[in-house]
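Narrative of activities, Objective 1.

The group set out to show that a structural description can be obtained from nothing but a protein's sequence at a throughput compatible with the screening campaign. Below is one input-output pair from the validation batch, recorded exactly as produced.
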Amino acid sequence: MDILMFILIIIIVACFTLIWYIGTYNNYQDYIIRINEAETNIDSILRKRFDLLNKSIGVIKANSDVEGDILEIIVKLRSRKLTNFELDRQIYEAINEFNHYRENHNELRKSDSFIKIEIALNETEAEIIASRKYYNDIITDYNKMISRFPSNIVGKLCRYEYKPYFDGKDMTDEIKNDFKL
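Output recorded for this entry:
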């Protein structure tokens, strides 16, 4: 009778462990799906900003006396494949150059096309800020799961790794893993 009770306890513990593992694994999967959705949203906004800046090249050339390359950063980005982190930094540099043209060429401020592009860029700025916040909130929760016991066991078994925040900093910095198994 004692052996039967021992086997029954082992089976019950194994079932609870399996149920916990499946639940934790599914939580990770939920975060991964949400992270992918947030990345897709950020990608969409960045592409919209890129397209607006790309359009502005023709508008600036048509409405000002600027010589040489305009928004050279955007021209170079056309053929490069970048991560969203890198693309975001490059687009901000291009927006700064765009603003420089606006400030130094009064004729551009009179152009309806230029004004429409400027308004659209400002609207996408609010969108990208909200998307970054959402992404970073998800990443915070995901990284907490990776570092906290006992969910870090499932993370180690599935080889999940920390993900960087979308904060505009140099993304080559390594994320420190202070929590070890």
